[in-house]
Automatic annotation (TrEMBL):
<feature type="active site" description="Proton donor/acceptor">
    <location>
        <position position="12"/>
    </location>
</feature>
<feature type="binding site">
    <location>
        <position position="10"/>
    </location>
    <ligand>
        <name>Mg(2+)</name>
    </ligand>
</feature>
<dbReference type="InterPro" id="IPR051600">
    <property type="entry name" value="Beta-PGM-like"/>
</dbReference>
<feature type="binding site">
    <location>
        <position position="170"/>
    </location>
    <ligand>
        <name>Mg(2+)</name>
    </ligand>
</feature>
<dbReference type="InterPro" id="IPR010972">
    <property type="entry name" value="Beta-PGM"/>
</dbReference>
<feature type="binding site">
    <location>
        <position position="12"/>
    </location>
    <ligand>
        <name>Mg(2+)</name>
    </ligand>
</feature>
<dbReference type="GO" id="GO:0008801">
    <property type="term" value="F:beta-phosphoglucomutase activity"/>
</dbReference>
<keyword id="KW-0119">Carbohydrate metabolism</keyword>
<dbReference type="InterPro" id="IPR023214">
    <property type="entry name" value="HAD_sf"/>
</dbReference>
<feature type="binding site">
    <location>
        <begin position="45"/>
        <end position="50"/>
    </location>
    <ligand>
        <name>substrate</name>
    </ligand>
</feature>
<dbReference type="InterPro" id="IPR036412">
    <property type="entry name" value="HAD-like_sf"/>
</dbReference>
<dbReference type="InterPro" id="IPR023198">
    <property type="entry name" value="PGP-like_dom2"/>
</dbReference>
<feature type="site" description="Important for catalytic activity and assists the phosphoryl transfer reaction to Asp8 by balancing charge and orienting the reacting groups">
    <location>
        <position position="115"/>
    </location>
</feature>
<dbReference type="GO" id="GO:0000287">
    <property type="term" value="F:magnesium ion binding"/>
</dbReference>
<dbReference type="InterPro" id="IPR010976">
    <property type="entry name" value="B-phosphoglucomutase_hydrolase"/>
</dbReference>
<feature type="binding site">
    <location>
        <begin position="10"/>
        <end position="12"/>
    </location>
    <ligand>
        <name>substrate</name>
    </ligand>
</feature>
<feature type="binding site">
    <location>
        <position position="26"/>
    </location>
    <ligand>
        <name>substrate</name>
    </ligand>
</feature>
Length: 219
């Protein structure tokens, strides 16, 4: 087992919780198309790219649309979402994140963001965490969304570390699968009943320490 050199973090549900804003924007779109989506349904969209999410929603509503119309709808949803997240501040950072990142930097670990969101850099700027990462991989740098491991393997490549020297932090099933497919140790943040593929599961970063993670990942 190689020593762990880098921690790779998803954004939504790990650093901040923008899921409610995604849900509000997707639900508004669904409503305009003549149907509704529930919060439970929205769980299926976590960690999934924008166009794939739209396809899931359209299938739920029994709709088939041409690609041009789908691009238009996805752009509209994103604008509604941006209007909501543009009001975010450092108060929106999830509990325990600041303390955990302080421990990460003291341990001299490299950090990367691995998010399929094209809005990730803007959100990091709004919450004052742009400088917290050595590499930022977002939706503009990848061609495949999670559960494909590209977002994490590219992060490892930018940090110049091997996949088995990385720990991924994820809250979504698709993200956990992406980390595992990338050959990385994966910490799932959420319910162990849901994140069954994760190597370690905790409710949030608030209840973890870097030493805890390194001890588990180095076994």
């Amino acid at each position: 087992m190689k020593p762990i050199k880098a921690f790779l973090f998803d954004l939504d549900g790990v650093i901040v919780d923008t899921a409610i804003y995604h849900y509000q924007a997707w639900r508004r779109l669904a409503n305009e198309l003549g149907f509704d989506i529930s919060e439970e349904f929205n769980e299926r969209l976590k960690g999934v790219s924008r166009m794939d999410s739209l396809d899931i929603i359209l299938a739920h509503g029994g709709m088939t649309l041409p690609d041009e119309k789908k691009e238009e709808l996805a752009a509209q949803k994103n604008q509604w979402y941006l209007d909501l997240v543009s009001r975010m501040t450092s108060d929106d950072i999830l509990p325990g994140v600041a303390t955990f990142f302080s421990q990460v930097h003291k341990a001299n670990l490299l950090t990367a963001l691995g998010s399929v969101s094209k809005n990730a850099p803007m959100i990091l700027e709004r919450i004052g965490m742009s400088d917290a990462f050595d590499a930022i991989i977002d939706g503009t740098k990848i061609s495949k969304g999670k559960p494909d491991p590209e977002v994490f393997t590219k992060g490892a490549a930018e940090l110049e570390v091997d996949p088995d020297e990385c720990v991924v932090f994820e809250d979504a099933v698709a993200g956990v699968e992406a980390g595992k497919r990338g050959g990385m140790f994966v910490v799932g943040l959420g319910s162990p009943d849901v994140l069954t593929q994760a190597d370690l599961v905790a409710a949030s970063l608030d209840v973890l320490t870097v030493d805890d993670v390194l001890a588990k990942a180095s076994v």
